[in-house]
Amino acid sequence: MAQNDNNGGNLGFEAELFKTADKLRGNMEPSDYKHVALGLIFLKYISDAFEARHAQLLAEDAAAAEDKDEYLADNIFWVPKEARWSHLQANARQSSIGALIDDAMRAIEQDNPSLKGVLPKDYARPALNKVMLGELIDLISGIALNEGNDKSKDVLGRVYEYFLGQFAGAEGKRGGEFYTPRSVVRTLVEMLEPYNGRVYDPCCGSGGMFVQSEKFVAEHGGRIGDIAIYGQESNYTTWRLAQMNLAVRGIDSDIRWNNEGSFHKDELRDLKADFILANPPFNISDWGGERLRDDVRWQFGAPPVGNANYAWLQHIFHHLAPHGFAGVVLANGSMSSQQSGEGDIRKAMVEANAVDCMVALPGQLFYSTQIPACLWILAKDRSNGLVRKTRLRDRRGEVLFIDARKLGVLVDRTRRELTDDEIGRIAAAYHAWRGEKEAGGYADKPGFCKSATLEEIRKHGHVLTPGRYVGAEAQEDDGEPFDEKMQRLAAQWREQQAEALRLDAVIAANLKSLGYGG
After folding, report:
1. Residues lower than pLDDT 70 in the chain
2. What confidence tens digit (pLDDT) does each residue in 145-192 have?
3. Burial 352-389 (b: 16+ CB within 10 A, else e)
4. Cα-Cα-Cα-Cα dihedral sign, residues 311, 312, 318, 324
5. Among candidate residues 280, 145, 121, the one with its CA nearest the CA of residue 201
6. 320 bridge partner residues
7. How far is the C-alpha of 400 from the C-alpha of 359, rounded, in Å?
8. Rounded to 5 degrees, what are φ and ψ at 427?
9. Which DSSP category does 377 fall into?
């Protein structure tokens, strides 16, 4: 695929760049190389942003160009001379390049307290090939070359996000710990429409939910400053990836590293979010639930100590604002499990009108697991919520079920993605069902979506698997009358039976001629 002249008009640029970068890593493990490459992309981003603003200020007022506050006011990191990309690029072929990069990272952290402890600083280690490092710097130097600051930020952000996804694929199960596939995140964002307010993710990984939320606001004419980002992440390395990912996008956030996890040390205990988007680890058995039996968050019942799925759902519901919405990715088993009281918690949630919509996803969407997954859409107040100045209809006593298992296209031998049109179809059904004026009227579609009453759900024992409700997809009418079709098919069946008997006789005769017959 040819590269685009402006470094980013299509996915070809990111893909070609990653292929080239991947060749440079040689025998280095993707899990190690990830930090090498992403750290340099981040360094290139903040240096480009600084240099662009620095040039503007020099043209206006030379003294202002050396004032750190001028950069801080524009959400731009201060980059000292020894940390600027031009300096590293000029020394890319020196044997000391690893030490120069480490020094640059330390200098940036020293001048920008919000980055303290975030940047990788082990480029000088002997095991890291310095020739590869120099070639990688040369490769990254071409990204967004000669572009304006906004364009540079967008392209570098796209490259960072694409690299994250590719490294997740290369790492397999471990990759899933820090990356949720883009099409899954986009589905949640398009359904919930986080236009303004507080957006929270209690297990935020590398920050993909936030990036897509910001993109949604920008693409729909909103103001980025209208949403506030909050998150927690227990894995320190992943937290660093998130901080860099958001910084590359210029996204302000309050992301806490919390090595005890959101259950045991809720860093944002008092936060009530307008939107929560989360992809918690599936079916975690060692979450320490035995120490939290009487926690205030378990509004619908104490979750089993052997599975954290219903702890996540209740933690998330607890953190919703009075009119908040949440979208949660969980294993399919969460929709039907009866083990250790999970069925009772699910029943309590449904009866309390906490569940707004359930979506069954196609298989093979995730890098980390082949376990089929679903989306839980929760709502704090389903009586008359307000979305973009539109009053939603009263949905109490109903749940929307969407069966998307047949959707998606294979992007390689093992992984599937939802297309933009398919994401739009899922979101459109949900928006119409909850009564958004511009979404049009809602109608059940056999095999795809069904608005089920509480009475119907009770008949199914409060099992929330969409396939139980949506029914079979309607078959197209081919215009042939039923009686005629049955006569034709019966005649065809008789012909096939006769042919089978004839073939049996031929085979028996051949076996007999060979001395194997009776």
Report:
1. 1-13, 144-154, 156-157, 168-179, 216, 219-224, 367-369, 385-389, 474-479, 517-518
2. 445 455 555 676 677 777 777 776 666 555 445 567 888 889 999 999
3. ebbbbbbbbbbebbbbbeeebbbbbbbbbbbeebebee
4. negative
5. 280
6. 273
7. 8
8. -65, -40
9. E
C-alpha–C-alpha distance, residues 89 and 82, integer Å: 11
Output the pTM of the full model.
0.77
Task: Name the token pair of 106.
Answer: 């330390």
* CB atoms inside a 10 Å sphere around CB 81: 9
Cα(502)–Cα(500) distance, rounded to whole angstroms? 5
> Looking at the DSSP assignment, which residues form a beta bridge with residue 390?
387
Pairing of strands 320-331, 373-379: antiparallel
Give the strands of the sheet with 273-278, arranged side by side: 253-257, 227-233, 197-201, 273-278, 320-331, 373-379, 355-360, 398-403, 449-453
Output the pLDDT for position 319: 95
Between the CA of residue 438 and those of 41, 390, 445, 448, what are the distances in Å? 41, 9, 19, 21
- How is 389-453 classified by DSSP, letter by letter? TEEPP--TTEEEEEE-TT--EESSSS-EE--HHHHHHHHHHHHHHTT-GGG-----BTTTEEEEE
